Amino acid sequence: MQLQQLTYFVEIAERGSFNKAAEALFVTQPNLSKAISNLEAELNTEIFLRTNKGVALTEEGKKLYQYARTILNQIELINRMAPKEPPRLLSIASYPILTMGRLVSQFYLDHRHENISLKMLECRIQRVIDRVENSEAEIGFIMINNVQVKEIRHTLNYKNLKYNPLGTDTWYINVGPNHPLYDREEVTITEMLDYPFVRLPDDYFSNLTFYLEIDGVPLNRFTRVIYVSDSAAILSLLQTTDVFRFGPGLSAPDFARYGIRTIPIRNCKVKIDVGWVQRKRELLSREAQDFVGMLEKLYPV
């Protein structure tokens, strides 16, 4: 008796037809009939009653079905013990920005039928760089303003990381419907001194930002600062209070979905370089290449 014979027998019993079983098993009906005939000869008993409407189990066939079904179930459990192919991994470290969540969601939808695990780590630039260097992330998404660029480029070179530019941007003001300037088409930096602004806790590179000036006003003039370590909390504050934040034009459509406006700042000369980093001389996985292709569409040429 062979396991294949039991598989054939169970398939016929459950479908009630040699023809249907042959189609499901991708075998010819003559070969299927021969296998069952050999099984009946070996058991010295009839296990199927043939009729014009198909087949039915004999009493002995019903007993055999219970045994055979149990054996096949046990074989299936044993097969599940075999090591499975590990999922492919896309790991990203990113400067906190709503746009990245949208891209990760789109990547998931595009690859949801593939065996891919996603890991997205949201953190300040310094941690993004560290995580790529330490192989916690395959690629890192960063935004560098003009007072940070020298230090960050030096750090990337020292850590043997490659910077890949995507485009340039500038700062805007993000405000929600409860902010007095919500309906403005443009604001001045002086006007914003009257309102608190929300931001993530500082690291070394973000501290450099306080050397920036906008229209002659240094950012260290802003004394009403709310530090929040959670992007969801920042979003909630923007939606429900009069706080504001500085952010790139890149995220404007993503904020708009939550009723948050992105307003230009008069005479804002802040330059933001947007790009991604990777370890030098290391080939990207297929998943990372696909995601980089999505990043490259953020600033179409």
TrEMBL record:
Cellular component GO terms, alphabetically?
protein-DNA complex
* A molecular function (GO) term: DNA binding
Tell me which residues make up the HTH lysR-type domain. 1-58
The record, for SUPFAM superfamilies, names: Periplasmic binding protein-like II, Winged helix' DNA-binding domain
Task: Give the CDD domains listed for this entry.
Answer: PBP2_LTTR_substrate (cd05466)
**Keyword Transcription applies:** yes
- UniProt entry keywords in alphabetical sequence: DNA-binding, Transcription, Transcription regulation
Alphabetical list of Pfam families matching this protein: HTH_1, LysR_substrate
Keyword Nucleus applies: no
* Source superkingdom: Bacteria
Which family is annotated?
A: Belongs to the LysR transcriptional regulatory family.
Protein name, as recorded: LysR family transcriptional regulator
Q: Which organism is it from?
A: Candidatus Flavonifractor intestinigallinarum
